[in-house]
Amino acid sequence: MITGQVLHGFFDVTLWFLIGGLIVLVVVLLAGPYRWAVATRARGRRHLDLFRIGGAVIAALALLIFSVSRVSLLIIAVLLALNEFGLLRLRQTQPAAQPPPAPNARP
């Protein structure tokens, strides 16, 4: 009982480290050169507007779920801005359409 109360803070910190580690693992795997990762990124680029709407919905739900203080509002706003910035970067890295081949010019 006493050890549980003493170690409760360490358990919370460990849980947050595990969650952060899992998030980093997923990001690293999705950014890799694997065939399934490339296909997932290509599918994701086709649905950027859905990701943008989803980010706004998650931010709105976070405002409803968590107590709104200045710090939590700032954190939610920064995360939403990072989401928008990431989606903007993905849109800019889309492969450009290839121009049609030029007709062969004869001298």
Instruction: Tell me the total number of β-strands.
Output: 0
Instruction: List low-pLDDT spans.
Output: none
Overall 3D shape: elongated
Sheet-strand content, in percent, reads under 5%
Characterize the quaternary organization of these chains. single chain
Secondary structural class = mainly alpha
Instruction: Quote the average pLDDT.
Output: 85
- Main beta sheet strand tally, sense and closure: none
Helix content bin: over 70%
How would you describe the overall organization of this protein?
The radius of gyration is 22 Å and the shape is elongated. The protein has helices at 2-30, 35-45, 48-65, 70-92. It has four helices and no strands. The relative contact order is 0.07. The chain is mainly α. The chain has two domains: 1-31; 45-94. It starts with a helix and ends in a 15-residue tail after the last helix.
